[in-house]
Design a protein that fits this description.
alpha/beta, Aminopeptidase, 7-stranded mixed sheet, 30% helix
Amino acid sequence: MTSAAPSFELLPGAGESPVILHVPHSSREIPADVRDGILLGDAELERELDHIVDAHTAELAAAATRLSGVAPWRFVNRLSRLVVDPERFPDEREEMLAVGMGVVYTRTTHGAPLRSADTDPEPLVARYFEPYARAMTDAVAGRLAATGRAVVIDVHSYPTAALPYELHGAGPRPPVCLGTDPFHTPEGLLGAAREAFGGLGEIGLDSPFGGTYVPLEFYGLDPRVSALMVEIRRDTYMSEPGGPAGPGLGRLAQALADLVGAVSG
């Protein structure tokens, strides 16, 4: 579970591609010094990771890249979201603070203590969250400079059955959920996603998870940055919780590649 790997990695795609596949929650890696601040025993922590990790989404993005005629760029978090969650708002705008899951989690998916209540989040924010945010901002700026636009496709998964931490878990749980933003998700991008994933079953919007990731420097300000979150229900491609991938992963990779192709031109 310890790791000397970088905390994130930008994998270059084609120079003419505006697309960044963002994979923030695929890793189980936790540096040893961060592990020391987590209250769970080893077996409990492994079980928590089974629930919270978007397993195999990095492999999904890599497979989609190989299938794409114009290779997208990939920005991959190499550390667990239990270190920091790079997609949370770093302030009071973050609704997940209500369940102890802001930038630095203090509660588990089932509401148990994950860290001490008096944990100071700032060292982890400075060490991991802020560099990640700067690098993702630079990645988007790079696509804007090269192509005049950037398309962030956020690659996630979610469990078939709602977990206690979910604030909106009572809503629909379709095979594919598309998370949108009123400013950054244009109809063309949403339509392309519906078509690309349409053969995989029902396509839902913003339930059980909504919104999408845009670096704060551009958020609500720059319409050249478009974004969409793709949430895949885990029973469509893997054994839950935390088990191996199945043949559904290949079908999803082709669908994601089709979406990348549709928005790359």
